Amino acid sequence: ELPLSAARARLLSFRSHTCGELTAHHVGERVSLCGWVQYLSKNSKVVLFEFNLFFFSLCFKSASHLKSVLFDLTVESVIKVTGTVRQRPAGQENKRMPTGEVEILAESVEVFNVCRTLPFEIKDFVKKSESLRMQYRYLDLRSSQMQKNLRLRSQLVMKMREYLCNVHGFVDVETPTLFKRTPGGAKEFVVPSREPGRFYSLPQSPQQFKQLLMVAGIDRYFQMARCYRDEGSRPDRQPEFTQVDIEMSFVDQAGIMSLVEGLLQYSWPAEKGPIKVPFQTMTYEEAMRDYGVDKPDTRFSMKLMDLSEVFLSTEINFLRSALSQPEGSVQAIRVPSGAVRANPFPVPPGHTKHMLQARMYLYVNSSSVSPSYCTSRSQRPLLGNVRLLCAELLESRGVSVRDPSAFRFLWVVDFPLFLSKEEEPEQLESAHHPFTAALPEDTQLLYTEPHKVRGQHYDLVLNGCEIGGGSIRIHNASEQLYVLKNILKEDPSLLSHLLEALDSGAPPHGGIALGFDRLVSIIVGAPSIRDVIAFPKSFRGQDLMSCAPDFVSEEELKSYHISVKWPTEDEQTASGRCSSL
Amino acid sequence: ELPLSAARARLLSFRSHTCGELTAHHVGERVSLCGWVQYLSKNSKVVLFEFNLFFFSLCFKSASHLKSVLFDLTVESVIKVTGTVRQRPAGQENKRMPTGEVEILAESVEVFNVCRTLPFEIKDFVKKSESLRMQYRYLDLRSSQMQKNLRLRSQLVMKMREYLCNVHGFVDVETPTLFKRTPGGAKEFVVPSREPGRFYSLPQSPQQFKQLLMVAGIDRYFQMARCYRDEGSRPDRQPEFTQVDIEMSFVDQAGIMSLVEGLLQYSWPAEKGPIKVPFQTMTYEEAMRDYGVDKPDTRFSMKLMDLSEVFLSTEINFLRSALSQPEGSVQAIRVPSGAVRANPFPVPPGHTKHMLQARMYLYVNSSSVSPSYCTSRSQRPLLGNVRLLCAELLESRGVSVRDPSAFRFLWVVDFPLFLSKEEEPEQLESAHHPFTAALPEDTQLLYTEPHKVRGQHYDLVLNGCEIGGGSIRIHNASEQLYVLKNILKEDPSLLSHLLEALDSGAPPHGGIALGFDRLVSIIVGAPSIRDVIAFPKSFRGQDLMSCAPDFVSEEELKSYHISVKWPTEDEQTASGRCSSL
């Protein structure tokens, strides 16, 4: 490991040291520090602050001379101080800071910039409204929390690269973001070209390119890939996001899973404690059965329990009638301390309707068990939600359910390869994407009972959030053609380049994509991915600082052969800072 | 440094070793190799090829059994071979390959994929037409040259990251590519949003964001930044490209230059020989005077020489008349071996017109000096071109002028800050961009004679190509406002967020951007940046493999409130593979 070389860094900068470097060892040395003024006291004592989050106290030899320099300064002004390091007066040490034993006896001050009066103090910024933080993002980022988040993100990605490139010989390949529209890619931004009627598309992932790179013999590809998804205003989604994109040749599911475990273990921030590998693995069936969801939060138990056998000869009417139905069952969640701490157990707000639809009943009066009645498997997600709501409810009443410092990774495997389309149940669609290979033991079912086929797909779940997904791909052209044409009823000509490539010596291959923004947000404990992205968009897709997107003149659009179709007045909506332009 | 651990890599893959790993040390070991069949002889001898460019010979224990397996195989089919390593028979060793002493006595073969008959053999691909290579890019990339290029690129970027993150504490920050249109950003792609009439823009560089990050206290930022430029069909430009984007606080020009020198020295591929730092530095004035260009190729001399004094009392009419004009001068290029090797020295094809316009004359009959007559400084670029053409001409006749293995870096500094607009000479425009600070000694001229101001801009030149440019930025809001409003006559409200940021405690800062694709292409000696980009666009901006850009239905455009304005029939143009859709 190469250390941050203070000597080399010094040569490149006006400063001789960073604020965080100075300790009692430097007493007597003449130094120059640069930073932002945090506090100015009447006796010209100044506290200096810098990117590495260390504060530093300054005193002045000749207060009268320097007072004139400091007179106009405001908090957050930028200065350079030259002076001598000295021990702080006895009793004034600050033991909480590594630099707290020393201070600078300043000889000269150079003022680089005087700060205007800010709309808020930096330290209060994180408490302010989201839109204010976004409008003044350059100030928001100066807060210690955002500095920590962005620096941890940078270090994490560096460690990941070291692991992939240096340990495992992966090749970092950049793939285009101006590409062709994916069949059915309804969430893809379009980019008009200078050829009339033709548009590029900003891809949701480099899926096709990574597979083509395997055909190209790259063997091990990775990329911190910028991806784009136009989802309108879904909360906590961003129109552009970053994924750790990985693909390997001559590999099976176990190989990819082992690689990812090694990757996370190697790059995991030391201060968050080590993580254990291998991660727990669970089939999709087990996840749905035990947790009612395909991304279980395994930091706590409270699994769904099947009590059907207990009630086989029950006299309770609605339970008996449920059990007489096809796939009918009685499910329960055991809520430890539920009866004591959350009695009467309320129906969580906003969920009454769903629960009635599911014909589900909660009993917590006399025991800590909440039996619930499901008519079919499809109701399980509702029970999964109830489980999570129970945890939240208990936590809100002071019961410790989930360890906030725990990181529980989980692989979910053996997903169904196809699902029935909601609007057209006879027709199948890919559960993930059309390139996923079937489990070897299910491959023959493709041609007979495709709805029963399980795919070689794997999801990585962390604390109940899906942070990654991948699969072993189909590497056989005729199998891929069959899936596209006969099962999914899609036009295979749109993917003819991929089919041709598979027919040109494609190796067996597979890969994964990790949602990097989400992963970082969980690691730093941020409530939103916006807290780990330097310049995120608002939930309406706007950059509130610059007011993007913005109007473009019809003249400028001419070279792209498009024109704006203005909506009628009633259709128009406008709100927020950037809508009044 | 972490080595590529064969043991760990093995666990993740079907292979026990890569083809390039096996040497005489492995004789007797049982191994599994995966790869592409390169050659199949009648006695079932197979040559296997793999990503790391090593070939491997296979022999078969039981030829009769394996013959049936191999019967259907074509070249470029993908197989796995399991067998035992053995010494090659005496006389059959291949000393040119590390693996040439051994072969595999194969026991079993698994066929993963049979390759169709390819349009060309892989090894011939690089000789084929550009459009064919692009259409079958996944095959083109299988060639050893493209494999080397992409792998070197990946290693180079990894070393750069190590230097910036691990040695100098830079923070890797991702900035948005969906942003606001830059004032005058005529080359920016637009991306329609769901808000009527509003468009994002794909930025040409993260210039504003990197400056905002300095205001945000990030101190040292870098990013391998994807940038976008819509230049229609300029040769050897790509609509998306990658730059090494760097910005630092509390730094001066010398600091940035020293950082970049260290960066290139640290990351330079060992096989290309070491590079010396510091790089040569030259002012813009010197470059124009001596080389007639602001990006001189310093691998050879042949500088422009001012012979005005020699001809002060000349009787030659046209020279006398030239010298009598304001800024008139007589310039010459001394072409070593020019008279001998290129006699008569021809006017290079296609340049006759330019040279007549410049009223330039070449004499090479009696000496090796080519005097040329310039009416003013503005003719110097023509002389600079002649210098390069002379070099090309000599090289085409077998004279060694430029060492093809030499890498000559050069800093060009002290550029003019503003230039007169061509169409409106009274009006100034930024020579680079409006954020560049003046040289400290020229700052006062901003308010009096702005056309005389030199900027703190620096270009990095390698072998006559500009591979980077940067500057110390204006960090004072009122100076920035003055430049935008009073000198450039631009509407400052479009940059109000940046002006506000500068007023909020902006540190002094500066940076640079290196054109990464161009840098890699020079290092590997590729004729085009398309040879170092995995999936480049054609010169018309098309992806010839997938036929992007493509048509999008009017229905799909509805949510973006745009419609296509189809040109009339005469305006339409169509050609090439992807235009017939």
Index terms:
homodimer, 581 residues, alpha+beta, OB fold (Dihydrolipoamide Acetyltransferase, E2P), BirA Bifunctional Protein, domain 2, Gyrase A, domain 2, 3 domains, 8-stranded mixed β-sheet, 5-stranded mixed beta barrel, 17 helices
Description:
Two copies of one chain form a homodimer. By secondary structure, chain A is an alpha+beta fold. Chain A folds into three domains: 6-113, OB fold (Dihydrolipoamide Acetyltransferase, E2P) (Beta Barrel), CATH 2.40.50; 145-278 and 429-532, BirA Bifunctional Protein, domain 2; 300-396, 2-Layer Sandwich (Gyrase A, domain 2). In chain A, 26% of the residues lie in helices and 22% in strands. The first copy, chain A, has an eight-stranded mixed β-sheet with strand order 6-9-10-20-19-18-15-11, with helices on both faces. In chain A, strands 1-2-3-5-4 form a five-stranded mixed beta barrel. A three-stranded antiparallel β-sheet of chain A has the order 12-13-14. In chain A, a hairpin with a 5-residue loop joins strand 7 (190-192) and strand 8 (198-201). In chain A, helix 6 (144-167) packs across helix 8 (253-267) and helix 14 runs antiparallel to helix 15 (496-502). Chain A is globular. Chain A starts with 5 loop residues before the first helix and ends in a 17-residue tail after the last strand. At the A-B interface, helix 1, helix 5, helix 6, strand 6 and strand 7 of A face helix 1, helix 4, helix 5, strand 6 and strand 7 of B. Chains A, B: One of its GO terms (biological process) is aspartyl-tRNA aminoacylation. Chains A, B: InterPro entries: Aa-tRNA-synt_II, aa-tRNA-synth_II, aa-tRNA-synth_II/BPL/LPL, Asp-tRNA-ligase_1, Asp-tRNA-ligase_1_N, Asp/Asn-tRNA-synth_IIb, AspRS_core, GAD-like_sf.
